[in-house]
């Protein structure tokens, strides 16, 4: 099974809700995604680890594929 690196799937994640009143673990998940301020957008490699972080904070982020 050879993978093509030139067609690496990515996912765009946008922080759409503030972190005030959010659990500490969820704050850390948002930070691990590289999102700092409201409306920050990051383009990340689509992997199970990233999808897990997104699923943890599904109510704070929007996925733009």
Short key terms for the protein model shown above:
65 residues; 28% helix; three-stranded antiparallel β-sheet; single chain; Ribosomal Protein L30, Chain: A; 2 helices; globular; alpha+beta
Can you characterise this structure?
This is Large ribosomal subunit protein uL30. It comes from Frateuria flava. There is one protein chain. The model has no long low-confidence stretch (mean pLDDT 91). This protein has helices at 24-32, 48-56; strands spanning 10-15, 41-45, 61-64. The chain is built from two helices and three strands. The two termini are 25 Å apart. The protein is an alpha+beta fold. 17% of the residues are buried. The protein has a single domain (9-64), classed as Ribosomal protein L30/L7 (Ribosomal Protein L30, Chain: A, 2-Layer Sandwich).
Q: How is the topology of this model organized?
A:
Layout: E1 10-15, H1 24-32, E2 41-45, H2 48-56, E3 61-64
Antiparallel strand pairs: 1-2, 1-3
InterPro entries: Ribo_uL30_ferredoxin-like_sf, Ribosomal_uL30_bac-type, Ribosomal_uL30_ferredoxin-like
Subunit structure: Part of the 50S ribosomal subunit.
Protein name: Large ribosomal subunit protein uL30
Q: Spell out the CATH superfamily.
A: Ribosomal protein L30/L7
- The N- to C-terminal Cα distance equals 25 Å
Classify the beta-strand content into a percent band: 15-25%
CATH architecture: 2-Layer Sandwich
- Count of helical regions: 2
Briefly note the structural class of the backbone: alpha+beta
Helix content range:
25-40%
The major β-sheet equals: 3 strands, antiparallel
Shape: globular
| Beta-strand segment tally | 3
Please tell me the total number of domains.
1
Order of helices and strands: EHEHE
């Amino acid at each position: 099974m050879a993978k093509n690196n030139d067609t690496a799937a990515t996912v765009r994640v946008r922080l759409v809700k503030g972190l005030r009143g959010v659990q500490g673990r969820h704050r850390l998940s948002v930070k691990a995604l590289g999102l700092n301020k409201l409306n920050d957008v990051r383009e990340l490699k689509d992997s199970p680890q990233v999808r897990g972080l997104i699923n943890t904070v599904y109510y704070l982020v929007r996925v733009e594929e």
